Amino acid sequence: GLILYLYMLLFSWMVFLSKVKTEQIATSLILSSAVVSIFAIRDFVMLHILGQVVPTYAGRVVSTFGQPNLYSGFLLLSLPFYLYLATKYQKQKAWIYLGLVVSILAIVASLSRAAIILLVGFALVWIFLKLRNVIKQVILTSAVLLGVVLAIMYSSHLTAIIQKELGLGDKVAVSWYEE
User: Per-residue DSSP letters for 66-96?
Assistant: First the structure.
């Protein structure tokens, strides 16, 4: 743990001293988060919809990180960079927003409750910054909160419902976290 934090501190200091443009850093972050997101969504579909065996951590997809909380945390940290680049590059705005949606779907696919709650917090902050009308803010915030609460309440049942509808039965996936 300590070595990782020291490495991150050293890396951050090197980036600061090298005078790399913020746009370049943001672009590299969103491209890497897009790759992680695509792998996560692919694994989620393969595991929960197609019933194929993929590496998991306690039955949850791991993307390229080996642990769902780590990859969802990385994706959460990349979300502000999507919005930053969307304001900087108007011509590529559609592609940037597509990447943002893919990252959000990958966060939800992690089934990480903490990440989903933080995603809601991020969405609420973004809504408050974008909307000027208080009534619109209250309605949208209530809708987002209701949606997330329902998603968290029914997330454990989602896989069973999907597998039952597709007739996959009880497929067992390989888990890295088996005791």
Answer: TSHHHHHHHHHHHHHHHHHHHHH-STTHHHH
